[in-house]
Amino acid sequence: MQNSKLWFSERTAEQRLRSVRHAMSAMRDGLPLLVGGKRPLIALAIESLSRLNLEELEEFKTSFPVLVLAAGRARDLGHPTVFPPETMLAFRLRSEDLTLERLRGLADPTAPQHVESLGETAAVPMDGNVAVDLAKQSRLLPALLIWQTTPAEAKRLIESGYPSVEADDVTAQFNQPPAVERITETTLPIAASPSARIVAYRGLADGSENLALIIGSPHDRGAPLVRIHSACFTGDVLGSLRCDCGPQLHRAVERIEEEGGGVILYLDQEGRGIGITNKLRTYVLQDQGLDTLQANNSLGWEDDARNFGLAAAILKELGLQRIRLLSDNPVKIDSMAKFGILVQSRVAHTIPPNGTNDRYLETKTMSCGHFREQSGTRRTG
């Protein structure tokens, strides 16, 4: 079957990237988004749905929408499934489902309205997973209303000014290795390292803002000590006891300063890549008894949504191809090798539990395979 292209002229890579970024913005703004592919579709993220645009949906009823949810969320709503929690499933909507409160209750396990059941299963619309990827990259819950439509109707809606994107452009953008652009660099004297410098990078695919804190002279060392640290506002800034992020960050600065040089990469990947709003949702679920991974899955996310290729891209831009990695996470080691960074050795970075985060640390060890040991070095080749 031929693709039903929404545009018929060739476009540059920059134009394709811009269309994906605009599509993500439309998702966040609660706008219906046209996705062109083998069969065009209209997608609307439930999280950003408003009462006003819910009333405007009559315009799109060339077919009735289906609800697309992750298996992890569907399982909590009583649907028996053996699929991994991030697998997308589709369900027929019932008339009583088409209210703002009901739809939000279906999408969000922390919403005020409690929903206990789903409609009949349906086929996930062709290229529906592309729309879901856009929602997740926009850090919205992976729960969407999707309509399959016709090329003629899609053309009419584009001419009416509705946002659109090609499925192939989204797939290509999200499947390629992350790329970054250096934005600016300045000195940043901090208590533990008065001569530190900081460099800002922007992710080209998603506009994320990432930092490299450069301590001492890392280029004077054969394999400088590097910490890959995902942003954690609650832990790093507020001192939350739920995690070990704050102590890990501050201890990493001290250790690299003691060594005389190294880098801390501070990545815009809060909550294992799901964003701070979704992370706070997981805290609600954890207070109800779930562990950190179960809570992610209940929202429809995979165990870990981060892409450490972003860290590799920054290290390459800094001219650092061989490092010693300050981490207890084996995925970070594997990711550096995958994206062309040689990890000469792993340096243990274990923070003891504080009485509040004991279960969190146990989950990281037992379910994520994190090392738990005292400071030291493990060779990785």
Descriptive notes:
GO terms for molecular function: 3,4-dihydroxy-2-butanone-4-phosphate synthase activity; GTP binding; GTP cyclohydrolase II activity; zinc ion binding. One of its GO terms (cellular component) is cytosol. It comes from Methyloligella halotolerans. With 381 residues, the protein is of the alpha+beta class. The chain has two domains: 13-175, DHBP synthase, CATH 3.90.870; 180-269 and 306-379, GTP cyclohydrolase II (Rossmann fold). Helices cover 35% and strands 21% of the residues. It has helices spanning 13-28, 51-55, 71-76, 100-107, 128-137, 151-159, 167-175, 233-237, 245-259, 270-273, 276-287, 292-298, 309-317, 330-338, 358-366, and strands at 33-36, 41-45, 66-70, 88-92, 121-122, 143-148, 164-166, 180-187, 197-203, 209-216, 225-230, 261-267, 322-326, 342-347, 377-379. A hairpin with a 5-residue loop joins strand 9 and strand 10. The longest helix has 16 residues, at 13-28.
